[in-house]
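Section 5.1 Outputs to date
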Amino acid sequence: MDYKNKFENKTILVTGGTGSFGNAVTDKLLQYNPKRIIIFSRDEKKQFDMGNKYNDDRLRFILGDVREKDSVNHAMKGVNYVFHAAALKQVPNCEFFPVEAIRTNALGAYNVIDSAVENNVERVVVLSTDKAVHPINVMGMTKALMERIMIALSREKRSQTVLCGTRYGNVMYTRGSVIPFFIDQMKAGKPLTITNKDMTRFMMPLDYSVDLVLFALANGEDGDIYIRKSPASTIGDLAESMVDIFKYDKGIKEIGTRPGEKMHEELISQEEVVRTEDKGDYYRIRPEVPGMDYRLYYFKGIKDGHGLSEEGYNSANTKRLSKSELKELLLSLNEVKEEAKNFKR
């Protein structure tokens, strides 16, 4: 889909913009001739490196923290669109420091959304995670709160700003993905460690996640959450495929499920099925109540859904990749291809 008419001569703010998503969406947005892309983050070294990488006058870097409303307001001036990607994403860190996760993932999101509304930004897309569905860890709980904050503020309609969101599981070869972890273990000559070979995970390339947020920004209405349909594989098949690609001989070791891990990634819950619409490559989840009429919340329900099974949408009931399909997908990633080519056995 061509989004040039949407982004040409527009100013876009990307919070947490020095991460994998920020770099990927910047690559895409620069093709659409924006007026400016503002990269807002806490990491001055990553900003310096990203500035050198692109060397493009359309990029502006602002050092700041989503926890600080004043620094967010400073970055928000003159912005048309916001992609809110800043977050604490590591499950163990959020478990050990839950208040820090609340401050960044929930209160920080509130600062970004509220500032966008106050500054009459046209559209905001917040980036959420499968872990927000039936959350069992702090990271998921704080991301679920972020979604609810977005939906609650969208109901208020204090300005023209349209607020919506996206959800996706771990994106392949990004921070938090197991693929670069496997590669590091192979470089160190260690067996690949997996928690449970029967766990399933969505296999979403990074460009899918970028397509998802662009689609949400172009099509989203207040309170919507969008999901990109993606295939999945077991962790066992993923590890075996990496061993085959790298011709690695140190084997695979199963260490047991860690606290906070689910057997399957969930992107749409059973309870959300009745509010979900099939949009081709995407699903759209409508908010429970679109306006501020509390009576609708208490006394009006929804009778039927739109093309999903009653169990929702998760990595166990989506398309399962065969090993050959999985290896083909892995080798479509330039990083995996280069690492395999240069790997010293």
